[in-house]
């Protein structure tokens, strides 16, 4: 939008910070300077973002933020208040990591961890897909939304414990073998909790013939930072 038109829009519809609701200055996007600063302080740069713990079927994994404070507030607003545009608050950090990864690896496709159809219809968007679109745009790696799909599940993962999550996920994903065979893939998700979902998605892709599956998550919970998570 042109600066003049945008200034006019801001006069009519004052934009608010996506976290603290303070009115935004004309040059602020999504967040006020104080909330932006808190967010920037939490991020790990591309070198620090590599995760030391191993996940089944995943060759390398990266995460940018711990899932806390402003990261949690923003993702909650994106997912449960329908404020999809707030995903842009993560854009520059996500771009930077995506470009670093694309420079060091030759991926054939970026794949968002899918939602099942019913949850997708309820929410109208998949936040992993919004993030994967930014990764694809920044890196030039093609975005593939239809290679991996998730079957309908009666139980939400977030309501289950670790063991129950793994059981609930068995055979949850389907991959199109023809499109996956021999490919190097970068799987993208918003939050890593136990890692069960990502591992199951990666396993499905590997069983379908993918040569390599790497994982990029925006944020991980403290539980996934603990040594115990490394063995699962
Ligand atoms: Zn703020």
Describe the protein in words.
The protein has two domains: 1-42, no CATH class; 45-230, Rossmann fold (3-Layer(aba) Sandwich). Strands 1-6-5-2 form a four-stranded parallel β-sheet, sandwiched between helices. Residues 226-232 have low confidence and may be disordered. α4 crosses α6. β5 (184-192), α9 and β6 (212-220) form a beta-alpha-beta unit. The chain has eleven helices and six strands. The chain has 232 residues and is an alpha/beta fold. Residues 17, 19-20, 22, 31-32, 34-35 line the site of zinc ion.
Summarize this structure as a short list of keywords or feature phrases.
single chain; 232 residues; Rossmann fold; 2 domains; four-stranded parallel beta sheet; 42% helix; disordered C terminus
Mean pLDDT: 88
Strands ordered across the widest β-sheet: 1-6-5-2
Integer tally of domains: 2
Which ligands are bound?
Answer: zinc ion
Structural class given helices, strands, pairing?
alpha/beta
CATH class of the largest domain: Alpha Beta
CATH architecture of the largest domain: 3-Layer(aba) Sandwich
Shape: globular
Low-confidence stretches: 226-232
Order of helices and strands: HHEHHEHHEHEHEHEHH
What is the first-to-last residue Cα distance?
47 Å
How many strands in all? 6
Q: Rg from C-alpha positions?
A: 18 Å
Looking at CATH, which topology of the largest domain would you report?
A: Rossmann fold
Strand content: 5-15%
Q: Helical amount among residues, as a percent range? A: 40-55%
The biggest beta sheet is recorded as:
4 strands, parallel
- Separate helix tally: 11
